[in-house]
Amino acid sequence: MADYFTHFSCLLDVGTPERAARAIDFFVALRDEDDKSEEPQFHGFDLSVQDGPESSVLWIHDDESGDVEAATAFILPLAEELDLSGLWGFEHSNTCSRPRLDAFGGGAHLIDLGARKVICWVNTQTWLADALNGEDPDA
User: Fold this and answer.
1) d(Cα 16, Cα 1) in Å, to the nearest integer?
2) Which letter does DSSP use for residue 53 in this model?
3) Three-state DSSP class for 69?
4) pTM for the whole thing?
5) 18 Cβ contact partners less than 8 Å away, ≥ 6 residues apart
6) Residue 90 phi, psi (nearest 5)
7) Which of 34-38, 43-47, 84-88 comes out lowest in average pLDDT?
8) How confident is the model at residue 102 (pLDDT cuts 50, 70, 90)?
9) What is the C-alpha separation between 2 and 103, in angstroms, rounded?
10) Residue 132: phi, psi to the nearest 5?
11) DSSP state string for 77-137
12) Interacting residues of 36 by C-beta distance below 8 A, sequence separation 6+
């Protein structure tokens, strides 16, 4: 049997150590609410402050297999909570414990923090399939 995994590890600088601490508190509060929900949406990744409490940089990552949609779902309200702006994004990879034809690939998400929306995303499996079928992969 094959095990499928999604991995990501990315940084988000929120500007100050105080904002980083607020982000952690916000994350914990969302997770607490999520634990009571029938459809949790903020699990599937971990959050910590990179390089200790005097840092303004958040580390968003998975330990075993992550949920890209959960990470994105968290970043959008976090941007609102901390009044973040600018562009931010992250990449992810899809892997498998055994060689399978559909098991490897990855993607990326580009987020406009100020507008609180995902601008675009790409999945390499879809992109490649489109390109091989003669479609414009950049459309």
Assistant:
1) 46
2) T
3) helix
4) 0.89
5) none
6) -155, 160
7) 34-38
8) confident
9) 9
10) -70, -25
11) HHHHHHT--SEEEEEEEEEESS--TTS-EEEEEEEETTTTEEEEEEEHHHHHHHHHTT--T
12) none
